[in-house]
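Renewal narrative, Specific Aim 1. Our central claim is that a sequence can be written position by position from structural information alone. The example that follows is taken directly from our test logs and has not been curated for this report. It begins with the structure tokens describing the chain, in the order in which they were read.
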């Protein structure tokens, strides 16, 4: 996008731009690009395809790349949203960065919620997508905990929900969401979410929640009707 306006890129060149963008600020040898994008083709055909993909780029799409006879890289003025989001996630997870210095809020969740190249099945894209998924899940869970501590419960629930949506069977994300409900005093929501997760875990994987998660909701079951939060 340029000034928040989408730029049309030929279908055959999108994979090329994506691969270069994932190697942000690095020069990528032409042989690596050709081999990654057209792994099943002969070397000659792969190079021909690369030349064709470059030639089809016009206007702003072509200006986004710095092309030399041996390698390709992003033009210096081009930025990639993924790397801003990745930097944010790494700062959230850095134990040496205090939470108050991060300016955490619900807008932070938006930067950590998007999947990378959904629907792409190239091996290089899948590897990068999984790398980003793992990083953002850990960051969202940490963010939920920080927002709970700051008593920003709406933001904590939003962050935990984003993590659960990204991987519904990941227990650590479920723990984050249930903790957020409990901290806010919404015991019924916490218990309902636990039971729905337990059913899904059993139906899809034949597993049960761990003792850690069971202990988290055990006290709720023992409370008489109308009781308040046991976290108070």
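The sequence written for that structure reads:
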């Amino acid at each position: 996008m340029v000034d928040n306006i989408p730029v049309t890129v030929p279908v055959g060149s999108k994979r090329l731009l994506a691969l270069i963008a994932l190697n942000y600020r690095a020069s990528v040898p032409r042989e690596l690009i050709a081999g990654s994008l057209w792994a099943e083709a002969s070397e000659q055909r792969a190079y021909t395809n690369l030349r064709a993909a470059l030639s089809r780029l016009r206007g702003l799409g072509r200006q986004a790349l710095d092309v030399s006879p041996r390698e390709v890289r992003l033009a210096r003025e081009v930025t990639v949203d993924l790397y801003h989001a990745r930097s944010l996630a790494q700062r959230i997870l850095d134990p040496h960065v205090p939470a108050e210095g991060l300016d955490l809020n619900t807008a932070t969740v938006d930067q950590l919620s998007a999947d990378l190249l959904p629907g792409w099945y190239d091996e290089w894209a899948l590897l990068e997508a999984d790398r980003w998924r793992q990083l953002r899940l850990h960051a969202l869970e940490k963010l939920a905990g920080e927002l709970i501590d700051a008593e920003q419960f709406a933001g904590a629930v939003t962050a935990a929900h984003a993590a659960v949506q990204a991987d519904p069977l990941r227990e650590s994300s479920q723990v984050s969401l249930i903790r957020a409900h409990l901290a806010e005093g919404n015991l019924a929501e916490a218990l309902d979410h636990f039971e729905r997760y337990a059913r899904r875990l059993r139906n899809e994987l034949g597993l049960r929640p761990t003792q850690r998660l069971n202990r988290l909701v055990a006290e709720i079951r023992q409370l008489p009707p109308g009781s308040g939060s046991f976290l108070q």
